[in-house]
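== Sequence and structure of one protein ==
=== Format: two labelled lines per protein ===
==== Data for this protein ====
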Amino acid sequence: MTKQAEIYYFTLTDEMLRTDKLAWFGNTKFKQIEFDKIIPDDKGNWINLTDNDFESLMPVCDKEVKGNKSQQAIFKLFSLGVVTARDEWVYDDNKENLIKKVEFLIDIYNQDVEKHQGKSKEDIRNSVDYSIKWSRAVKNDLEKGVKYKFNDDLIVDSIYRQFIKKHLYFSKQLNEMQYQISGIFGLKIDYKNKFISITFHDQLKYPSILSGTKIWDYGYGARDSTALAIYSYDKDGNRHDNITDWALNQFKSHYQTDLTKQDIFHYVYAVLHNPQYREKYELNLKREFPRIPYYENFAQWAEWGKQLMNLHLNYESIAQFPLERHDTAQAKIPKAKLKADKEKGLIILDDNTHLSGIPLQAWEYKLGNRSALEWILDQYKEKKPKDPTIAEKFNNYRFADYKEQVIDLLMRVCTVSVKTMQIVKAFEN
């Protein structure tokens, strides 16, 4: 019989200097070290062990439920966002530029298909035209002699980052992984479905929780952005409730009142925004899917969740926050800056224009390691593309072309940020 391993742990204080630590180890025998014995939890975790009631809460989602082996979770289907493996090639703010990039990529690829017919895998790998972005799946298609054809119908609106929309060439051939996005939007892409995007992991100081109705990127809230939709679609295009009957019965039984799956959807959204929930279960949330507690006054929490979701989904039509715009004529060709001075309430757009009056509360609305406003500033900066071909042939982005659009977006998202924090503050009352 194999003996089960045991874990013993010892650490020196962080305040000790490196030289002191080395001297301590040099002068201390192994048998003299006073180790602490660690008992891992049921899931094998032995670092940052928790002592809370997380395991007793209701699972948001579970692989057993997703695989039809159980019903005991709130959502049945969940999916990661699209992984393109070639973002600079298949995403763009400008549809015409996206078409040019994709057509160029497909032309080069098809030329290589013709050129390498009958060659070995090794010969192909060493001689393809690397002016385009290759990946394992595309090379496999090349080896099989599969030709690609551009399809304008595959260009869709997507949410690339928080409050940042882009055109996406949503192609199974040129997207490395689409996971189960078709199960959320259907084969014909139904943008009427709503989802909650959740992102928790060690690299994030704050989780990224947002709602959406469009195809989202894997890095939407940093990596591993997972969506929980209110509906799902089967292979025949039929729509189904994605919140399980089991979850509905659990909520009804606990609260002894009539409620709907839509109410549960909004309730979950509010709970995931609750700072006290995030703090209490911080370690759990960084290594597994969320679980949801039963809070008093379900109806109030569901209403808060509905308000938050309406804010986040309708950010493009919400009223602008009354920021003050300041224009000068210092430079004929102003240099883009897109920087923030939070203490002074300023956003400097370029040499000629800045916005003032941004309240401190607006910066408190965090999505991952940035505020919502900072995500916008980051994404609209002028950056040299990493791909050399894109940089040489297709880098036509200039902030000046989007300046008025960005100002409008910042003013609306400022309203979203302030109102979001007002709702979140109400949780404490």
Notes: The longest strand covers residues 155-161.
